[in-house]
Amino acid sequence: MSASCCSGACAAPGKPVSPRYRKALWAALVINVLMFGVEIFGSAHSGSVSLFADAIDFAGDAANYAIALAVLGMSLAWRARAAWIKGLSMAGFGIFVLGKAAWAFHTGMPPEPLSMGAVATLALIANAGVALMLYAFREGDANMRSVWLCSRNDALGNLAVMLAAVGVFGSGAAWPDLLVALIMAALALSAGVSVMRQAQAELSACGED
After folding, report:
1. Where are the membrane-spanning stretches (predicted)?
2. Tens digits of residue pLDDT in 4-24
3. For the chain, how many structural domains are there in total?
């Protein structure tokens, strides 16, 4: 499609933003900032790689929610650009976790499962609440979809960390923690690539290949 698209719908301001969606984004931003601090402390105390990965994910998601708030009401092209950057950050997080897990495989000790499980449970409650708030907006443009995928992946990641804590407690080994870290990395990579593809398709429709 020619650049004329960008002189029309692609360049025009977006539709009025639902107050519910804006409030949900602000709530998600605050919750993610708070939980980043909680999980950084919890990962340092327990020595859990998956909990540390989840803490970094909270930080990345807080930045993503801030970007989403910044581009609300902007044109489709600008929202797609923001979504592409967020997808790239999600994929980058997945690569980072893969490296961290590989390092811990060679040098790490089994984490302390009780504090690991307690922090993961708190994080699951927080992320489940965020996911429920954002569920109604999951079928929007690439920018809105990336926000939903972040919240969904967080909740799944927290549940996985809880299962890893049970596995570490039962086996006394580090492999359940490392396995969950790898699963979280795969989720981040998959979601990041999906968001980047949708964002690129929206940019292409605006003549910005």
Report:
1. 24-42, 62-80, 87-105, 117-135, 155-172, 178-196
2. 333 344 544 445 567 787 888
3. 1
